[in-house]
Amino acid sequence: MADLDTFRSETRAWLEANCPAECRGPIDSDEDRVWGGRDATFKTPAHRRWMEVMGERGWTAPEWPTEYGGGGLSREEAKVLASEMRRIDAQSPLSSFGIWMLGPALLQFGTEAQKKRFLPEIVRGEIRWCQGYSEPGAGSDLAGLQTRAEDKGDHWIVNGQKVWTSYADKADWIFCLVRTDPEAPKHLGISFVLFDMATPGVTTKPITLISGKSPFCETFFDDVRVEKENLVGTLNRGWDVAKALLAHERTMIGGMGDMGRPMGHVAVDSIGLDDAGRLDEPMLRTKIAELDIDVAAFRLSMERVGDQVKARQVSPAIASMLKYYGSELNKRRHELAMVAGGSDALEWESDRSRKGTAARDWLRTKANSIEGGTSEVQLNIIAKHLLQLPGA
């Protein structure tokens, strides 16, 4: 415990000295996040520096091994780091599918060469990834994918299409499911491969949603060369990698339930305070308090599950529970923002301050029930694997 107290005091001092003022406070929009990559953009020079100093320390992926660029922290130390970052309202230095999804899969299934090549770049924010899973005819039935990789000896030639590929138009590399044995049962004959999005034959087309914008893209592969060294895991057993990665993805999406501006601040900006210094709308005040309590409970549940995962004491299906409930919390948050904003929240065109974004952000949350596996799919998994309900 004394060692942990020392770590906390040293971490607190380091964060105070190194986290810029510009990088403290809530992230109001997706555009404010730092995604890294070859063509990275930063809201301010301070955001670049924050990513760089955290990456140098390995604290963008604090529990990854130091030999792969990570922080090498224990689970308890990582929780201290997270709590100290929350204490000063420090923003995440790097948003990354590499950290949230691919990295854990590489640590479990990757070769030593793959780990040494890709993981340090992910930690430092030098490479940005997208996910090639869903297809026009294979969404919730992911194993029905038809993108094919034809064996050419030392490489494959990939042809097919993916859809709902988040940030494909901005990504450097893709982790992708392809069918390497079309004669095998659909859950077999699938392989998990990596390739550069700048490879000839890769094209993307953004998909605009009802919100007026979207991170999603259609992605097309026309005779794309993929080297055999970029196979992750065993040939034709990519479904094993895919399932493990899906658990990390669903936990990531569930984490949205503990993100965003505190609703009390949003409501105060719109409604104001009464003479007693309370939000001047009792019914809304109650709903915000209920949300805050549920978010706090969800945060503790996420921490508990993280401890259980580390100790290998939890079902992989628990990720479906976190994904489902985190999505519901995020939708509730944005619905309350619309209520608090009243008619002003319906404004659509303005880019001044936060006006013109509340309705777009609220509409965007509707996709939370679909991406990463629909809510219906998650509830079926929960019923079957966690509750073990008859007939599930």
What global shape is seen?
globular
User: Which structural class should the secondary elements be placed in?
Assistant: alpha+beta
Overall pLDDT: 89
Straight-line distance between termini? 45 Å
Strand count: 8
Major sheet: arrangement of strands: 1-4-5-8
Number of alpha- plus pi-helical segments: 11
Helix share of residues? 40-55%
Largest sheet: 4 strands, mixed
Order of helices and strands: HHHHHEEEEEEEEHHHHHH
Strand content: 5-15%
Q: Indicate the radius of gyration in whole angstroms.
A: 22 Å
Q: Unreliable stretches, pLDDT < 50, 5 or more residues?
A: none
What layout of secondary structure does this protein have?
Elements: H1 2-18, H2 45-57, H3 75-87, H4 97-109, H5 112-123, E1 129-132, E2 148-151, E3 155-162, E4 173-179, E5 190-196, E6 202-206, E7 217-227, E8 231-232, H6 238-254, H7 263-271, H8 282-310, H9 318-341, H10 358-364, H11 375-386
Parallel strand pairs: 1-4
Antiparallel strand pairs: 2-3, 3-7, 4-5, 5-8, 6-7
Helix pairs in contact: 1-3, 4-5, 4-6, 6-9, 7-9, 8-9, 9-10, 9-11
